[in-house]
Amino acid sequence: MADRNPSLSSVHDFSTWAPVLRLLRDNSTRQATVSSPLRVTGRIGRQGWSLPLRRQAPPSGQAAQAEDVRDETEAVERVRQALVEAGIDEISFTTKIVPAGETAIRLLARSPATESGLDPHPGALLLVEGAVPQPWRCLPDPVPGAVPAASADPGLLERTLRERLPDAVGATETEIENVETRLGLALPEELKALYRVTRARWEDWGDDHAAPARECAAVGCELFPLDDVYVADASSRHSLWKFAAMEAVVTPPHAAVQGLVGSPGWLVFGDNGGGDRLAVDLTPGPRGHLGQIIMIGHEENVGASLVADSLTDLVLDRLGEPLDGSYEDGPPAVAHVNIRSLPSIEAAAHPGLEVLSIGVWEAEPLSLAPVVGLPRLRTLVAYPGTLADPLEIVGLTALEYLEIGPEEWRVLLDAGAVPRGLSAAAVKVHGDQDVAPVRSVVNELLAIWGRPPIIRTTLRGDLGPVP
To answer: pTM score, two decimals?
Structure first.
């Protein structure tokens, strides 16, 4: 796509960027010359920025001070204000800096159809509006025989908590009913019993600053206020396509917890203090109990672990060993072929394969023939140069996400062989990849689906002499 003429917006004014460019030029440890200019890339957004600056370490035993990065902050703030005025969340750039003379900077405005990626390259391309990866579309399997654990005892739970929290303010029946209406389901009896003792509102504690700690000790977690109880369905566990497409939902027959992204039956009521959520599980696995307590980890995208067979057990500190609900018995649904994992495509191939990742590979490029026609293979990620024939991708008829290098994409584009069943895609970038060919591939892919392109604007100006 040809360069766009600068608009009246200050974000397209060279003077807006000049302080950042001077900072990069003056900070560089490599001498840029007219014959060998210095190429740098970066990103500036409303919420933060990434600039290739070598910062001086503070003296031993001291933390960095605001004045140490004042020049950087002031230079970036000028651009950030321009982004706000233009209604742009973030912008990447690439430039070649010379000590003197004209300097050009190329601005790459992220398309609304792309996710954040490795500067200055975009992340996943959202080819189908509103599409989500397959694991995020999975609903819990029915478990008709699931029953509460024998340890579940709402009466004992309530009596225990009233003894531990005699001054707590409990929720009224009306307040509980209002929450049930908001959530669209009835709260389990144990959870009702808990909130009848304490509704966990800060305003109820007044000046009693020790109350939160007492409540945490009494319940066994940081209890959320009744009004903050929520359903941890799949939409509550956001992940970029690049990572989400690499996940798989697996629930073995002996699992206590279903290996889901989220469930309409996961009622979150607390936190372990480290960002992991505790929930009552109303959609347990085949060997689980209705109303069991699970922990939804904030560092994982899929699955949850069993904490206690019931809320009563949690309060009485009758905890078993944490069990993972997403382990597999058979061949893995997600396979990694590289120099340290599986040694071949053949070793990864089986009818249940959903995700194939081909990483660093030192031998001859690989053929995809062993996985052609597999009915569930929906994700292929391949490191640049690892595929013997990119056109074999045509035989992967169930693909919804494809991430390959720009050269491999060029083969598919030139042959008119880009899989049209894709919902998202990405260009796998290796090392200091030039922006132009990557942007060209990205915009051609977006055009096939009629999605908005990445816009490049070139600005030119003179930074003046090096001080």
So the answer is: 0.85
CB atoms within 10 A of CB 58: 11
- CA–CA dist 22, 464 (Å, integer): 9
**CB-facing half-sphere around the CA of 428: CA atoms within 13 A:** 20
Please give the DSSP secondary-structure letter assigned to residue 257. Answer: S
- CB-based contacts of 323: which residues, under 8 Å, 6+ apart? 256, 257, 305, 306
Could you give the angle at the alpha carbon of 171 between the alpha carbons of 167 and 176, nearest 5°?
Answer: 165
**Phi-psi sector, 179: left (phi>0), alpha (psi -120 to 50), beta:** alpha
Tell me which residue of 240, 232, 239 sits closest to 258, measured CA to CA: 232
SS3 for 462?
Answer: strand
Burial of residue 221 (CB within 10 Å: 0-12, 13-18, 19+) is: buried
Give the Cβ contact number of residue 130 at 10 Å.
Answer: 6
At residue 294, the 3 state secondary structure works out as strand
Quick: pLDDT tens for 339-392: 999 999 999 999 999 999 999 998 999 999 999 999 999 999 999 999 999 999
In this prediction, residues 197-226 reach a mean pLDDT of 93
Q: What is the DSSP string of 103-118?
A: EEEEEEEPPTTB---S
Q: Which of 116, 315, 310 is nearest to 219 (CA)?
A: 315
Scan for tokens 């003179």, then name that residue: 462
Q: Please tell me the distance from the alpha carbon of residue 188 to that of residue 281, in angstroms, as a whole number.
A: 10
Residue among 230, 295, 249, 236 at smallest CA distance from 140: 249
Instruction: Count CB atoms within 10 A of the CB of residue 243.
Output: 12
For 190, other C-beta atoms within 10 Å of its C-beta total 24
CA distance 151 to 281: 15
Q: In this structure, are residues 44 and 109 in contact, taking their beta carbons and an 8 Å threshold?
A: no
Three-state DSSP class for residue 271: strand
Region 193-205 average pLDDT: 94
Instruction: Work out the mean pLDDT of the chain and round it to a whole number.
Output: 89
- Alpha carbon 391 to its chain's center: 30
For residue 282 the two structure tokens come to 């109303």
